[in-house]
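Re: beginner question about structure tokens

> Can someone show what the tokenized structure looks like for a real chain? I only ever see the sequence side.

Sure, here's an example I had lying around. Input first:
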Amino acid sequence: MKQISDDRQDARDQQISQLLSHHQQLALSSTLPNVQVPIFDGHPIEYTYCLRSFENLIKPKTASDNARLFYLVQYTSGEVQDLMRSCLTMSPDEGYTQAKRLLKEKYGQDYEIAAAYVNRISKVTSIKSEDGVSLQTFSVLLTSCRNTLQEIGYINKVDNPDCLVKIIEKLPFSLRQRWREVADDITNNKSREITFDDVVKFVEARARVLNHPVFGKLNTSLDPRSKCKDSSRASFGIESKRTDDESKGRFDVKTYKCVMCNGDHILARCSHFYKESLAGRLKFVRKRGLCDNCLLQGHIAKQCPKKTFCKVSGC
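And the corresponding structure tokens:
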């Protein structure tokens, strides 16, 4: 008899504990702000999010399918709302069931959701170098695509080489170079196929680097390559000394500095340069990044504005 009494006491204690826990949860939920249920406009990408929000926030608080159908009409818009309203003429139980079936059939098919994501990704414009905001937006889109398609079991829609190449083509050239090394590591060192998840993680990591709160933005003024853009004179390695009459538009005679001997002439007039062998001269020009034609900085021979500079016949 004592054992039975103890069991009953334990059962009462457990019920009291569950009741207190339930009241505690109710008290906590009452202090939270109201969660807004999104309105579904028919876009397949929003289908899963809107439907789950409705089932988690509206369905538990309604006692009948008839009431749920009226709320379903309220939380849709456009042609979707017209479709939901057409179900109000049916019996309450049948109307709500039919409304959910129509939503799934017309807007929530797995292949439609996958196709909508592919279409949205394809419409993304090419991202410029150092554009952290656009890269972060693109990363969020790819992550959402991966999570949703994994959930509905349709990840194979984007998990193929053709789709992956199109995604990588949206990235700046510098990131495409980095991705090439990552892809090579996956294929040759890890000996497996490249997946959509690999691309998502790569873009996510690069977006995080580019948007670093302290070192994300680079000071381009410190880039030596930017000096070539200061003026057309600087791009050809010409220095101009300005006088106090600069404001009047008058300048002193230009002074040329040889990149080999630092003399007051261009490299093409340098005696030290011509004492070198042909191989030595070519090596020096290539090392200093000079034009093979005019021997000046800032461009290559194909872009040289001068005609054939060499005076040797047949060169």
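Each token stands for a local structural state, so reading them left to right follows the chain. Confidence is low (pLDDT under 50) at residues 226-253.
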